[in-house]
Amino acid sequence: MSGRQEEELRRLREELRAYGRSLDGSPGGETMAERVLARILAQELPAPEPAPRPRVRAIRHWTRTRRRSLVAALCGLLTVLVLTPPVRATVSDWFGFHGVQVRHDPSAAPSPDARVPGCAAPVRLEEAARRAGFTPVVPEALGPPDTVSVTALPHGRTLISLCWRDTAGRTIRLDQFPGRLDFTFTKTVREQPEWLDVGGQGLWFPRPHVLTFWMLDAEGRRFTREERTAGPTLLWSPAGRVTLRLEGVQSRVRAREIAMSVTNGGG
Amino acid sequence: MIARVRAGQPEAYAELVRAHTGIALRAAAALGAGPDAEDVVQQAFVKAYCALGRFRDGAAFRPWLLSIVANETRNTVRAAARRTTLAGREAALVGAEPVIPESADPAVATLETERRAALLAALEKLTEEHRLVVTYRYLLEMDERETAEALGWPRGTVKSRLNRALRRLRRLLPEGGAPA
């Protein structure tokens, strides 16, 4: 082959690569991940089961080669097997939402009379913002918080909690943290939550559920996972950067009102 | 990572999706999904999740995922072909213009656009097998081994088809490639 042909082919390869790169979509990896996980949840797809081990494969191969004789013998048995649904893992469904992991576990046991914890070791709002490195949003519908606290999370991240007392003396709590896909909270639910339009997408958990969260140990050195029962909760992420978790509001309509007052107020 | 997904760790699958969204979108576009590329990729990721149990331990994830994307694209294109004419599809392809700095000479820009259009027209004229091998190896920038895995061909076949496809492409282009 001549040098000119070689050169043309080299250029052609370069052009093809350049064309391929021009087809790259916008870097929407985060949104795609959330869309995919939401679909998996919506369709209640079971968690993937591990591939069969070589030994199982060998048995399959053996049965395949002797299919005809086996089919007759096993017909009755196979019918029974097909009619019996496979045993599903206890935790069969999950998905992530702005840094909160939601697990579906019909056997989860939230305690019947749990209370929303208040904001311990309160600090001023400005101090909380300084320590956390972001300004917490204050929903207009709730007004200035009664107390504010700051909690450390792993990887140098920080959680800000705002607390209010409602007229009946119960706590309304709004947790805020920079949402990412390394999960800050895990919610284990017996019933699937519902999507709620709060200007963006929100998730409404109408029933009490088990909430797992990070806690620093007494010496302040090691993070551990703690569990408590959480009441009805609304999750949303108005600007996409910070995830908000509202607890202590029993009514879905009221929770949505509060969330909308953040979105409208510009956070 | 895949072992973690199978063990029911969701963040692992989110990471996989995030890491492969770019290349999956490129594959869908390159294989002709057009405006449906995002939907195709989303569907492919859901299917990949369901099929993860059949994923061979130790195999590369990317070629495996891209073969699912290719399947989904084929299904979508087949459905869309009933609606769209070939001419319309070509127009959509030419729409993906090369990135040219604003300061560039407009005459050069026109030339580049024409060259890209000629390249796409030539790609369309290749046989299915030749177009596939060029797409995987160059448009998707996979190496020979990954291309072989994604297409389910022996490596020798990938090599020889790729050689023939490139030569054919060169002949299909005007003047065997005008100087830039």
From TrEMBL, chain B:
Highest taxon in the source lineage: Bacteria
UniProt-listed NCBIfam families: sigma70-ECF
Native organism taxonomy: Bacteria, Bacillati, Actinomycetota, Actinomycetes, Kitasatosporales
Domain RNA polymerase sigma factor 70 region 4 type: 117-169
Organism: Streptomyces thermodiastaticus
Family as reported in the entry's similarity comment: Belongs to the sigma-70 factor family. ECF subfamily.
InterPro entries (UniProt xref): RNA_pol_sigma-70-like, RNA_pol_sigma-70_dom, RNA_pol_sigma70_ECF_CS, RNA_pol_sigma70_r2, RNA_pol_sigma70_r4_t2, RNA_pol_sigma_r2, RNA_pol_sigma_r3/r4-like, WH-like_DNA-bd_sf
UniProt keyword terms in alphabetical order: DNA-binding, Sigma factor, Transcription, Transcription regulation
Pfam families: Sigma70_r2, Sigma70_r4_2
Residue span(s) of domain RNA polymerase sigma-70 region: 21-83
Protein name: RNA polymerase sigma factor
